[in-house]
Backbone:
């Protein structure tokens, strides 16, 4: 079905009633008043306290593990090691390279070796410190170059390369021979912590002999179920997973959810008692997965008319200790390697390598933040060499309908990047503010960044979503999705889609929290798919329910089905205003007459594919596009950068709720400023040296700039509900290059590593910027 | 991070009672707890008895008396910021207090705690040094008063003896013709620790600088006055050009940390000491000129 046509073809309306309007979130008051329940709010007194014993070596064999002293501490109930794992002692996401509890070897400082269970926090802490681990230290590799060196010690059995990726499109050497100007550079991006406000947490309790329930912070309840069942050696239906409201995730809890939940569940099952594992900020910052660091080498050619002729890219992805999401991350970087520009000749090589450090994982922007930082920095340097305006150079090369991506995917609709670029250029009065402005020791500059980001999972992996909706006897609705509420509000977007289709008031909806015992698998809340796929499954369910409602109303009103109107929780006949009925009565009639009052929706987007030899194919069903203009003021004496104003634009397909989109855009601006100017996990010999929010510095509200009204371009995606595309991830990608390009414009210094701290900028200016 | 170790907490209602509790072994005062609780959890300090001062209301005041402005140790940063007396007579302190942490931290944190914590970058230390403050210290045995400069003994160390409490910080009421200013550089704008901070205070007699005190934070083991800079200015004609010259001398006068993982490099701190000194002195001069 072409879901973007639902409105006119099916609902018979010219105008939306709910979709496209900004509403007050149904959960706003609860959250503002502190009534909303997060995982820790469910934990009952008397719950067993679980803590982890972590490796203190970056790379070592475990010689001896002695838990006897720990077990003697009063209040200690058990200490479990790899030998105690009832199911599989393996929890790797994409590859089986990651033990659940390390029993032979550790691969980074923070690798879990054992879990201790105790009656209270103090006993658990004492026991954690009393577990004796004797190591046989091995040499460790901390950098990409160290790990790729010929004589480097192998971190995993197969060597230090986790995987590779490639694209071969056209003939790059021919492309470079046609170029007038070439630019080359290496761009590095650091580990970034998610810094979500709610530390990782899981609460598990056994229910009878063969069942356990886990309540936790996560992004994919069904992935958690799979991993918990794997560790326990149980069937999927023996594990019930409930995702409580989650206090921020940004990708991180997609990875930590299964790891933390499985430990709590194992303790609960083994002890036959409720058990909880709650991280503190140190554990979150030092030991949980981060944004993968990467090093991207880029060579780009452009002809005399400013048309890109060739791009050659080498991507080195630093996985850390385990591959985790690396196959998907690297592949995403590979197929997005040209940015939202058409390049006829493309050559990309990607290599993901292991190092003995905390491992990388899911993170908002998923590889594309690094790629667009590199590509958009390059675009400005090319424009400079050509003496062309950066906006003009972008407009000449930007993807439009009929053009092809780096992987040669033909874009036949839903491409709004040109409008985004034009929109922000116009709104910011680009030509005017690009004029040099200096006052005393302060100089201003403006820059532009762009983004494209594929919707759904990478590597052509199968993807689908599911949802259900129930019309209750009183006319109220229950909506069920396992797409998670992480602060972003996606389930509310789903409910709006359902409400629009069935003609209900928003107040009539209750959105249930994800529960694997009562819901079908909507798949993860990641990959910018929560709304585009999850919302479309919701639409599918809503359309089925609507049919039952329309049928019943048509029978009752003795009127044609296409003359039935459903709106504001009322059914009526368009031809006879006296024939109308509240949903309460309609629902009653449906139950009595045997019309199915519940519907289940399922959606799968068109299949994608790629040729592993060339990397060419259809990479994603659709792309969200974004552009950002940023104005900065640089203090030439201190190197401090003040972000004065941001102009954001995004092609969202269809804005289901402009206010929710603003929430994502504004949050992403802060988030992007963080990694552009200050955030970086720092390591010394594999140890995180800033494992707290004192020295892992993130932007405060005072670092947040003025933000112009968001420009929402709507180029609907044919196969998603009302044409909507994901916004949360794409929102951050263009912020970073916009900032670095603005600094380049202001000072003449083009940075190829971030964060651009005041100290670094000051040093660069000293070395001969301006 | 660990749990707070087992401690006994005492809740005295008067200074006298508090001083008695301070005689217990391993006694440590608890003011706002914004430094202490973190230190306890990180194992950075030990305490067996915590003497909670939050109910000792007699240590919570800002008043002018006997030609001096007197601030009780339990005065919160928020109260310093709100005080008209401090804002009009000692703006340098008002500015600094306003840049301590966030609203929540300023509501909880005290000036006494800030000084006793003795961080080299404590934000109220440099303005108080620039204002020529003295510290009043009490114990069951009596009271002593020392110049604030002698209070700091090293990073996170003071010259307090066991059983002693800091009770008051006081400085001569700045006269007409005086002005002060505070400059701070952090890693972000809001809720940020000082990579370096500088407070300057000048008194003018016509265009002669009759009195001057400058202090720098996070550039030595303790917050310190830069007397070499003061001597270059004192008794001389002062203007922007002179300030520019003397400020650049800071480069060689400060002694920033040389640790590898310090929050800023030694070089950057040296360079910034010159910039911030010039900016602080320039604003202080401007304010002194306007303070008729
Ligand atoms: C998020 C955050 C941000 C911060 N930002 C800043 C900042 O920008 N600038 C800054 O300077 N500081 C900052 N701090 C540090 C801290 O808030 C301040 O130093 C604050 O003033 C400490 O006061 P307190 O009342 O909380 O002291 P406490 O933590 O209660 O005590 C600190 C120390 O002083 C001792 N002590 C307290 N009162 C007395 C007394 N009367 N006599 C003897 N000893 C005493 C205590 O025993 C303890 O050793 C920040 C802290 C946090 C957590």
Residues:
């Amino acid at each position: 079905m072409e879901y973007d046509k639902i409105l006119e073809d099916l609902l018979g309306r010219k105008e939306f009633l709910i979709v496209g309007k900004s509403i007050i979130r149904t959960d706003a008051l609860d959250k503002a008043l502190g009534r909303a329940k997060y995982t820790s709010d469910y934990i009952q007194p008397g719950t067993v306290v679980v803590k982890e014993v972590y490796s203190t070596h970056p790379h070592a064999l475990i010689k001896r593990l002695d838990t006897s002293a720990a077990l003697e501490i009063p209040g200690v109930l058990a200490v479990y090691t790899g030998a105690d794992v009832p199911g599989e002692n393996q929890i790797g996401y994409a590859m089986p390279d990651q033990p659940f509890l390390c029993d032979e070897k550790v691969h980074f400082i923070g690798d879990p070796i054992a879990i201790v269970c105790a009656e209270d926090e103090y006993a658990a802490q004492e026991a954690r410190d009393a577990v004796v681990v004797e190591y046989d230290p091995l040499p460790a590799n901390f950098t990409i170059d160290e790990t790729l060196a010929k004589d480097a010690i192998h971190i995993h059995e197969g060597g230090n390369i986790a995987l590779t990726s490639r694209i071969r499109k056209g003939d790059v050497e021919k492309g470079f021979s046609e170029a007038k100007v070439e630019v080359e550079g290496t761009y590095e991006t650091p580990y970034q912590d998610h810094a979500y406000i709610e530390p990782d947490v899981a609460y598990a309790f056994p229910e009878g002999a063969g069942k356990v329930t886990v309540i936790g912070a996560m992004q994919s309840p069904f992935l958690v179920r799979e991993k918990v069942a794997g560790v326990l050696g149980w069937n999927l239906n023996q594990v019930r997973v409930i995702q409580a409201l989650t206090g921020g995730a940004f990708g991180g809890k997609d990875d930590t959810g299964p790891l933390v939940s499985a430990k709590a569940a194992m303790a609960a099952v083994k002890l036959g008692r409720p058990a909880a594992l709650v991280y503190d900020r140190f554990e979150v910052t030092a030991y949980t997965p981060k944004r993968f660091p990467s090093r991207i080498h880029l060579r780009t050619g452009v002809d005399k008319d400013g048309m890109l002729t060739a791009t050659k890219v080498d991507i080195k992805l630093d996985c850390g200790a385990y591959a985790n999401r690396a196959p998907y991350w690297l592949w995403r970087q590979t197929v997005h390697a040209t940015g939202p520009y058409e390049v006829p000749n493309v050559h990309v090589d990607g290599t993901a390598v292991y190092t003995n450090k905390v491992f990388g994982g899911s993170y908002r922007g998923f590889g594309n933040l690094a790629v667009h930082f590199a590509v958009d920095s390059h675009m400005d340097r090319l424009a400079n060499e050509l003496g062309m305006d950066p906006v003009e150079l972008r407009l000449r090369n930007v993807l439009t309908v009929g053009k092809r991506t780096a992987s040669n995917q033909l874009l036949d609709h839903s491409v709004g990047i040109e409008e985004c670029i034009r929109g922000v250029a116009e709104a910011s009065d680009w030509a005017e503010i690009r004029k040099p402005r200096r006052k005393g020791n302060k100089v201003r500059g403006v820059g532009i960044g762009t983004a494209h980001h594929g919707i759904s999972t990478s590597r052509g992996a199968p993807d689908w979503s599911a949802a259900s909706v129930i019309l209750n006897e009183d006319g109220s609705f229950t909506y069920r999705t396992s797409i998670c509420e992480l602060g972003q509000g996606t389930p509310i977007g789903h409910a709006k889609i359902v409400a629009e289709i069935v003609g209900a008031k928003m107040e009539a909806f209750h959105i249930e929290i994800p529960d694997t015992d009562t819901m079908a698998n909507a798949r993860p809340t990641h990959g910018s798919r929560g709304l585009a796929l999850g919302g479309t499954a919701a639409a599918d369910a809503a359309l089925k329910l609507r049919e039952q409602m329309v049928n019943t109303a048509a029978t009752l009103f003795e009127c044609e089905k296409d003359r039935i109107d459903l709106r504001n929780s009322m059914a009526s006949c368009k031809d006879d205003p006296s024939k109308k009925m509240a949903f309460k009565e309609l629902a009653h009639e449906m139950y009595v007459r045997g019309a199915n009052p519940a519907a289940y929706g399922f959606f799968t987007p068109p299949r994608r594919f790629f040729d592993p030899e060339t990397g060419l194919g259809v990479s994603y069903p659709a792309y969200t596009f974004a552009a950002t203009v940023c104005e900065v003021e640089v203090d030439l004496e201190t190197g401090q950068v003040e972000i004065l104003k941001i102009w954001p634009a995004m092609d969202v397909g269809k804005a289901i709720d402009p206010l929710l989109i603003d929430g994502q855009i504004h949050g992403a601006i802060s988030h992007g400023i963080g990694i552009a100017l200050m955030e970086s996990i720092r390591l010394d010999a594999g140890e995180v040296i800033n494992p707290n929010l004192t020295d892992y510095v993130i932007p405060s509200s005072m670092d947040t700039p003025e933000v112009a009204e968001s420009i929402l371009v709507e180029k609907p995606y044919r196969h998603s509900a009302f044409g909507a595309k994901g916004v949360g991830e794409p929102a951050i990608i263009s912020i970073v290059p916009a900032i670095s390009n603005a600094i380049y414009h202001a000072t003449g210094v083009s940075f190829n590593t971030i964060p651009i701290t005041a100290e670094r900028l000051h040093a660069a200016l000293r070395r001969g910027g301006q | 991070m660990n749990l707070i170790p087992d401690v006994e907490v005492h809740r005295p209602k008067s200074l006298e009672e508090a001083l008695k509790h301070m005689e217990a072994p391993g006694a440590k005062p608890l003011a706002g707890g914004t430094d202490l609780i973190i230190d306890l959890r990180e194992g950075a300090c030990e305490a067996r008895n915590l003497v909670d001062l939050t109910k000792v209301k007699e240590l919570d005041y800002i008043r002018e008396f006997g030609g001096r402005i007197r601030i009780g140790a339990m005065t919160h940063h928020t109260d310093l910021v709100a005080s008209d007396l401090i804002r009009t007579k000692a703006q340098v302190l008002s500015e600094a207090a306003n840049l301590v942490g966030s609203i929540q931290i300023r509501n909880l944190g005290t000036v006494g705690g800030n000084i006793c914590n003795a961080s080299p970058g404590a934000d109220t230390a440099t303005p108080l040094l620039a204002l020529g403050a003295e510290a009043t210290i009490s114990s069951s045995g009596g009271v002593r008063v020392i110049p604030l400069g002698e209070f700091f003994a090293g990073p996170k160390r003071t010259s307090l003896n066991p059983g002693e409490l800091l009770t008051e910080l006081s400085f001569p009421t700045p006269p007409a013709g005086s002005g002060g200013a505070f400059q701070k550089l952090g890693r972000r704008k809001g809720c940020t620790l000082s990579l370096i901070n500088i407070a300057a205070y000048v008194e003018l007699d016509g265009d002669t600088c009759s009195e001057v005190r400058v202090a720098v934070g996070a550039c030595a083991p303790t917050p310190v006055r830069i007397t070499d800079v003061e001597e270059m200015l004192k008794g001389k004609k002062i203007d922007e050009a002179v300030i520019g010259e003397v400020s650049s001398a800071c480069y060689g006068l400060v002694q920033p940390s040389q640790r590898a993982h310090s929050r800023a490099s030694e070089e950057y701190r040296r360079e910034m000491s010159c910039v911030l000194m010039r900016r602080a002195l320039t604003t202080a001069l401007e304010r002194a000129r306007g303070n008729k």
In short: The two ends of chain A are 58 Å apart (CA to CA). The mean pLDDT of chain A is 97. The domain at 290-459+611-767 of chain A is CATH 3.30.365.10 (Aldehyde Oxidoreductase; domain 4). Residues B 28-36, 53, 73, 100-101, 105, 108-110, 112-114, 116-117, 122-123, 160, 165-166, 191, 193 surround flavin-adenine dinucleotide (CB under 6 Å).
